[in-house]
Give the backbone structure.
Amino acid sequence: MEKKENLLGYSLETLEDFFKRIEEPKFRAKQLLKWIHQKGIIEFEMMTDFNRPLRQRLAEIAVIRPPQVDEVHVSPEGTKKYLIKLDSGSMVEMVRIPEKKRMTLCISSQAGCALQCTFCATGAQGFEKNLTAAEIIGQVWLANFYDSNDSNITNVVFMGMGEPLANYNAVVRTLRNITDPNPDGLGISARSVTVSTVGLVNGIEKLMAEDLNVTLAISLHTPDDELR
């Protein structure tokens, strides 16, 4: 059986290409984005502005599937740490951090990490896999819709498990999706998105050339300014 496409990680542009392939007008892409990221609906059957034949066709060839929430831990001040299970069985973490005027989400881009920085617990478990764009943006979807009582995410930080620039293509694809100004998508300002790296120079140069305008943070862990 042919594997179904997971549309959750798709941007407006890649969704337009998808609908073109199945001979549907490109405006369907904006409709689908609105169902996913504005209304939190991921079942095609509930997307009532799609006709029934299209809903059936989509269900045959595609899915919108976020990762699974395995555990949730809440601190006294309201920070929520989620243990997320991927289809592969690997586990990653995301953290929802409430602040006065914003809601920040710290997300993972890899399961484990190959860099093994001595100050980081993730490196001690070794590297398991790069997350797909669907698995990365699926964390944002879960943060917005898993608990209906929570406020929507305003800021995103790639500072969870893994080195984002070591999973470059999926991370950039996710960044474009998150910061797309299309009002039917997530609509998070590029200035509200931060990519934290330990300093992969080639990745930094490539990211700076992407014209994404996100914030780049370089993690320095040394005991004095001279070493920094």
Q: What stands out?
A: The chain has a mean pLDDT of 91. The chain has seven helices and eleven strands.
